[in-house]
Amino acid sequence: MKFSKELIDWYLKNNRELPWRKTKNPYYIWLSEIMLQQTRVAQGLPYYLKFTEAFPTVFDLANADEEYVLKLWQGLGYYSRARNLHFTAKHIANNLDGEFPKTYKELLKLKGVGDYTASAIASICYNEPTAVVDGNVYRVLSRYYGIDTAINSTKGVKDFKELAQQVIDADRIGIYNQAIMDFGAIQCKPKSPDCTVCPLNTSCVALEKDKVNILPVKEKKLKVKKRFFNYLVLNTDNKTILKKREGKGIWEGLFEFPLVETSKSIEVEELITNIDFLGFFPKDVKIKLFNAKDIVHKLSHQHLHTKFWIIDSETTTEQIINWSNVETYPVPILIHKFLNEYKISKN
Known about the structure:
Elements: H1 2-14, H2 26-35, H3 41-54, H4 58-62, H5 66-73, H6 80-95, H7 104-107, H8 115-126, H9 135-145, H10 154-167, H11 173-186, H12 205-208, E1 225-234, E2 239-240, E3 243-244, E4 255-256, E5 259-262, H13 268-272, H14 275-278, E6 286-289, E7 295-298, E8 302-312, E9 321-322, H15 333-346
Parallel strand pairs: 1-8
Antiparallel strand pairs: 1-5, 2-9, 3-4, 6-8, 7-8
Helix pairs in contact: 1-11, 2-3, 2-8, 8-11, 9-11
Protein name: Adenine DNA glycosylase
Cofactor: [4Fe-4S] cluster
GO molecular function: 4 iron, 4 sulfur cluster binding; 8-oxo-7,8-dihydroguanine DNA N-glycosylase activity; adenine/guanine mispair binding; metal ion binding; oxidized purine DNA binding; purine-specific mismatch base pair DNA N-glycosylase activity
């Protein structure tokens, strides 16, 4: 088939030199695929190198403390990926003798492994003819075949998977899957691709019909929720407070300063009379606002409007720690950035 042959020919000349491309070890392929979900290669590569150095085998990852895993993951986002990664490593090490499943269907049973990751491991490591479908693949297929079905609809997910399966090169499935992903990332990129040098430009429906900048189509996003965070940063005698986030919300398992969440942005007078504030500190503490304007931290479906309040108090209901130990805890990137700015402001 011209489509798959052209992609592989292009890939053999233009592929990116990436460390996980030099192995068929399923552990390394699995690590890379989990890290690259919702993440650009340039951002994910340093984390991959850190993890493979810290955890050269699945047993090393399985034996690590979750807090250390989250600390190494810090800044990569979507922290459920890291928790699932650690859970699955323990399952493979303890229940499967360190051996990864060798088929797409069995790989799908692993926690945190979906269609895309299972397809990647099965095809690259075991040459099983199962097609990968990620954002890059959606874009290439949608443009080349001129398909305007929304890629995030139930029908779109089903139809694009079926199409991807039909057009794979079954003799070179691992190379083909990597080829179409790289082609989407480098050549058929989201905005303003250079179609004049594209090897598929004589048969691309989107180019012929002037729809390159329209395809692929996505259904309207969910409404973004606004949340208002007030972090209470104790700084008395080189002491502070960090609390571990519990539950299934954002940043589960990470640490943060005591938090007062409100329905709107508030001033100090409202803060110190808030019942949640009084659960941490007495009303007569010394307090000042660190950031003059709310810091807006954007997550996929929520925007966190955040204030950091510096607290000087000898009295608190919480367990205190030394400031010098703060950097050893895994924290959300929002707090990591604050810590860096706060350190600079004190120097």
